Amino acid sequence: MVDVPTKMQYVNLGSTGLKVSRLCVGCMGFGDPRWMDWVIQEQESVALLGEIYKRGINFFDTANCYSNGQSEIILGKAIKQFNMNRGRLVVATKAAIAVNDDMSFNPAPRDDPNYVNRFGTSRKHLFDAVDASLKRLDLDYIDLYQIHRFDDDIPLEETMRALHDIVQSGKVRYIGASSIPAWKFQKANQIAEKNGWTKFVAMQNLYNLIYREEEREMMPYCADAGVAVIPWSPLGGGVLTRKRDVKTNRAENAKWMEEAFMKAREQKDNDMIVDEVLAIAEKRGVSAAQVALAWNLSKPYVTAPIVGITKIKHLDDLIEGLDLKLTKEEIEALEKNYAPREVMPFNF
C-alpha cells in the first residue's frame, strides 16, 4: 500500500480535469552515466522511483532521448515493480530529438543517412516515436505526450494533425510542448482549434529566478488560454541552491546549463540573485532550494515545476517546502536584480 503523505498537494493540469502532484519529478537523471556523467544507473534509479512514489508524487516526466531510451525503460520497470496504480499515475514523455544508437547525444544528426526520418516532428516520426516510447515504458497509453522542440522543416499543420490522430488512436490522452517560441505555440493551438483537432494543454519551459524571459509572452498566453505551465529547471540546474564555489558533479553540469541557457550579460547579475536566495533561506531557516521553488510556485500560472531528483533527501526537502509562502517584500528582493538576457535557443 502506498503511503501518500498529506503534505503532497494536487492541482489540475491547466484547464483540464487531470490531477497532478504539485511537483513533477523529471527522469532525465535516470539511465546511463555514459550519456551524462551525473546520471544514476538502473538499479538505483528504480529503487529511488519507488521512494518518490511513496511520497505522493504521481507526475513523472521523461523523454525518449534521455539516455537514448533507457530513462523510459527504467520508469516503466519502476511502475511495474512497485505496482504503481496506473489510474492515479500521470506519465509524460517527449519526442522530436533523435534517439541515438549508442550513448552519444546528437539531437539532430542531419548529415547521417542512418537517421533520416528518425527525429523531428513529421507525421512519420511521431507515429514511430510514440510506439517506441510505449514499448520502452511497457504501457498501453501515455498521459501527456510533448513535442520536445518544434522542427522548423515540418509544417505546423502536419505536426498538429499527427498529434491529434495519435490522441484519437488512444495511445495518448493529452498533448503539450517544450521550450518553443510563444508565437509558434499559439499558432499551433490556433491551427488545431480551427480544424477541430486536439490542442496543447501544457507548456514545459525554462523558468526560474535567473531566467525569466518567458514572462514577456509565453506566461501571459498560457494564463489567458488556461494552458498548464510545468517549468523545467526551476532551481536553475542547482545554480540557485549554493554558492558558486561549491564543487560537485551536478555543480559542473549546472555551470554548463547556466552558460548554455541562462547566461547573464555579467556574472554578477546571477550572483546577486543567488545571494538574495541564500539570505532569505538563512533568515527563514529553510534551504535555498525551498526558497527558489517557493518563488516559482508563487506565480499563479505555474502548475507543477519539474524537479530532477537523484537523492531522496532532496525531494524530501522540496516537499517540506511546499507550504513555504514568501512575503511580497521577499519576492521583490528576489526579483529586483534580474537583468534581461538573450532568449535560450529553441532549435535543435
Automatic annotation (TrEMBL):
Keywords: Oxidoreductase. One of its GO terms (cellular component) is cytosol. Residues 22-336 form the NADP-dependent oxidoreductase domain. It comes from Absidia glauca. This is NADP-dependent oxidoreductase domain-containing protein. InterPro entries: AKR (IPR020471), AKR_Detox_Biosynth (IPR050523), NAD(P)_OxRdtase_dom_sf (IPR036812), NADP_OxRdtase_dom (IPR023210). GO terms for molecular function: oxidoreductase activity. Pfam families: Aldo_ket_red.
